[in-house]
Backbone:
C-alpha cells in the first residue's frame, strides 16, 4: 500500500492538484462575498488558483508534448514559494493589527484590474505562440520552432512576461500589502530582466537577423528592460 502511495499514476496526481486548486477557488469565492476584512483575500485566492489551473489547461491545449505536473507552476521555485508565504503573512498581520488598511476598496479594485489584465495578456500570448510556447527557456531549436511576431507579439516581444509581471504586482496591490508590493515589484523586475536576456540570447542564435529586426521594431513591454545588448 505504501508503494502505491509513493508511485501514483500521473493522472491521479493531476487530479489531486486540480481538485486542490478548485477547492481554493471555491473558498476564495466564499471569502469574496463575506462581510469581513478578509474579502479581498478571497479575490486573491480566486486569482491565484485560476492562474495556476489555467497555466496547465492552456499548455494541455497548446503544447501537450511539453505537458507535465510542473505545468501547474505550483513548484515554480523556492523564491516563488517564499514570496507567496510572505504576502500571506503580511496580509494576516496587518489585518489583525490594522484591519482598516485592508479595506481600501478602490486600491484592491485597481489591483484586481491589474491581475485581470496580466492574466488575459499572458494567456493570449500562450495561445498566440501555440506549440512554440514553453515554460522552460529552450536552448535548442526544434524543427517546429518558429518566430511568432503576430497578435500580442506585435505589441511586445515578451507578452507572457509582461502579463505575469503585472499579474504578480497586482496581487499585492489587491491585498493592500505595502511591503510585499514594493518587494514584488523589485524582485519580479530583476527576474524578468535576467530571464529576458537569457531567452533573447537563444532567440538570436535560433533566428539570427530575423529576430534582430524584430527586436528593433518591437519593445519588450517590460518597464526599463530592453533585453540583451547586441554588439555590432
Residues:
Amino acid at each position: 500500500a505504501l508503494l502505491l502511495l509513493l508511485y501514483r499514476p500521473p493522472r491521479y496526481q493531476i487530479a489531486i492538484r486540480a481538485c486542490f486548486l478548485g477547492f481554493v477557488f471555491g473558498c476564495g469565492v466564499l471569502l469574496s462575498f463575506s462581510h469581513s476584512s478578509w474579502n479581498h483575500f478571497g479575490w486573491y485566492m480566486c486569482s491565484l488558483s485560476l492562474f495556476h489551473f489555467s497555466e496547465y489547461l492552456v499548455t494541455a491545449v497548446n503544447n501537450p508534448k511539453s505537458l507535465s505536473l510542473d505545468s501547474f507552476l505550483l513548484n515554480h521555485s523556492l523564491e516563488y514559494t517564499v514570496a507567496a508565504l510572505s504576502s500571506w503573512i503580511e496580509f494576516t498581520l496587518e489585518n489583525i493589527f490594522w484591519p482598516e488598511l485592508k479595506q481600501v476598496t478602490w486600491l484592491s479594485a485597481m489591483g484586481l484590474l491589474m491581475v485581470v489584465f496580466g492574466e488575459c495578456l499572458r494567456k493570449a500570448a500562450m495561445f498566440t505562440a501555440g506549440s512554440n510556447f514553453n515554460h522552460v527557456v529552450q536552448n535548442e531549436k526544434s524543427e517546429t520552432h518558429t518566430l511568432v511576431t503576430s497578435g500580442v507579439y506585435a505589441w511586445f516581444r515578451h507578452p507572457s512576461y509582461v502579463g505575469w509581471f503585472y499579474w504578480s504586482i497586482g496581487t499585492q496591490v489587491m491585498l493592500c500589502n505595502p511591503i510585499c508590493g514594493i518587494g514584488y515589484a523589485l524582485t519580479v523586475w530583476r527576474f524578468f530582466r535576467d530571464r529576458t536576456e537569457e531567452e533573447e540570447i537563444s532567440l538570436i542564435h535560433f533566428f539570427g537577423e530575423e529576430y534582430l529586426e524584430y527586436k528593433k521594431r518591437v519593445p519588450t513591454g517590460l518597464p526599463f528592460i530592453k533585453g540583451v545588448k547586441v554588439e555590432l
Residues 1-9 have pLDDT under 50 and may be disordered. Helices lie at 2-6, 10-32, 39-62, 78-97, 105-129, 159-174, 178-207, 209-217. The domain at 1-217 is CATH 1.20.120.1630 (Four Helix Bundle (Hemerythrin (Met), subunit A)).
